[in-house]
Write a structure and sequence with these properties.
Elements lengths: L2 H18 L10 E2 L6 E2 L2 H12 L4 E2 L6 E2 L2 H12 L4 E2 L6 E2 L2 H12 L4 E2 L6 E2 L2 H12 L4 E2 L6 E2 L2 H12 L4 E2 L6 E2 L2 H12 L4 E2 L6 E2 L2 H12 L4 E2 L6 E2 L2 H12 L4 E2 L6 E2 L2 H12 L4 E2 L6 E2 L2 H8 L8 E2 L6 E2 L2 H12 L4 E2 L6 E2 L8 H9 L4
Antiparallel strand pairs: 1-2, 3-4, 5-6, 7-8, 9-10, 11-12, 13-14, 15-16, 17-18, 19-20, 21-22, 23-24
Subcellular location: Nucleus
Main location: nucleus
InterPro entries: Ikaros_C2H2-ZF, Znf_C2H2_sf, Znf_C2H2_type
């Protein structure tokens, strides 16, 4: 057999072997991850993905310390620190550091939510978001913080939470100096300075900078108070308000102000108080210059500068300057808050609007009423 014939024979043999191979459609995902079920077309991508489950993160960012399983992911991450956002959405102008993030964002504008949860009916633009959502229905919170034992449904949420314990706040607001542990929190905060509040409550007209703030506010109008204090029975619309309230029962005020020594039962109350000393995020009355730590306090205060009393009680026709004063007054008629004076054994309703229960005994003993 000549060399030419040998070559032809080898070529025919190779063609025969190719024919014997099972037909594989282009793009078919033949590699499946046993850990999470994700499918891959290429073996290289499959092996790279498996590093995620190994827990090994050998590539660390020298700017923020964040670690990654793959060098490529670290490289993408570093673009965040550069501040360069080369990919811009034509619809809303929002910019992104990566093309993939822009494409994911553009799904929002399409209005298409092809991934639907068969348990609650909620729809999502991405399959990954649906998968994360479905974990909520399972009730399983497999990721626990070893510092405070708080649990989370996914590793990402736990990782974000742990930043709060580190005390490291790498993201600073250029306008007020406030610092944040995460870039997303900084972005959310900066909307406040813009003054833009596009989310308006259709029941009372109050506007908000963020859709989440509007949703939280709307619970007030629903009248639903699902969170109850097991010590006094007081009801709250939000769990965070209940937790804050429960601190008052302990009597412990472990959070002290370094500037004036005033103590608080909750860290959130201390943070609010510190605004007075820093001058950041305070609310100033344009009529008398008095400073308040919350917008609600300022709003209540502004009613003191008017002589009008447009808020009238339906039951006794008494009038008030502010809606919150009327609401407090109406508790007298409903008697939802009744404190009995141990000094004179007489039930008093009117003073509950202005004094704590233990003040009643002191007033009674002084024969002030």
């Amino acid at each position: 057999m000549t060399s030419t014939q040998k070559d032809q024979h080898v070529m025919r043999s190779q063609r025969s072997q190719e024919t014997d191979k099972p037909y594989r459609k282009k793009g078919q995902k033949k590699y499946t991850c046993d850990e999470c079920g994700k499918d891959f077309t290429l073996l290289g991508n499959f092996k790279a993905h498996q590093l995620v489950h190994s827990g090994v993160k050998a590539y660390s960012c020298d700017l923020c310390g964040k670690s990654f399983a793959r060098a490529g992911t670290l490289k993408k991450h570093k673009v965040i620190h550069s501040g360069v956002k080369a990919y811009r959405c034509d619809e809303c102008g929002k910019s992104f550091t990566q093309l993939g993030h822009l494409k994911q964002h553009q799904l929002i504008h399409s209005g298409v939510k092809a991934y639907r949860c068969n348990l609650c009916g909620n729809s999502f633009t991405r399959a990954g978001t649906l998968r994360k959502h479905q974990v909520i229905h399972s009730g399983v919170k497999a990721y626990s913080c070893d510092l405070c034992e708080k649990s989370f449904i996914d590793a990402g949420s736990l990782k974000k939470h742990k930043l709060t314990h580190s005390g490291f706040k790498a993201y600073h607001c250029d306008l007020c100096g406030k610092s944040f542990t995460q870039a997303d929190n900084l972005k959310t905060h900066q909307v406040i300075h813009s003054g833009v509040k596009p989310y308006i409550c259709d029941l009372c007209g109050k506007s908000f900078a963020h859709p989440r703030s509007l949703k939280i506010h709307q619970l007030i109008h629903s009248g639903v108070k699902a969170h109850s204090c097991d010590q006094c029975g007081k009801m709250f619309a939000h769990s965070c308000n209940l937790r804050r309230h429960q601190d008052t029962h302990s009597g412990i005020k472990a959070n002290s102000c370094d500037n004036c020594g005033k103590t608080f039962s909750s860290i959130s109350y201390l943070k609010r108080h510190l605004r007075i000393h820093t001058g950041h995020d305070v609310y100033c009355c344009d009529q008398c210059g008095k400073v308040f730590t919350t917008a609600t306090q300022l709003r209540h205060h502004t009613f003191t500068h008017t002589e009008e009393r447009p808020y009238k009680c339906d039951l006794c026709e008494k009038t008030f300057k502010a809606p919150h004063s009327l609401k407090g007054h109406q508790q007298i008629h409903t008697r939802r808050k009744l404190y009995k004076c141990s000094y004179c054994e007489v039930c008093i309703y009117i003073f509950i609007l202005y004094f704590k229960p233990d003040c009643l005994e002191q007033l009674c003993s002084l024969n002030l009423f």
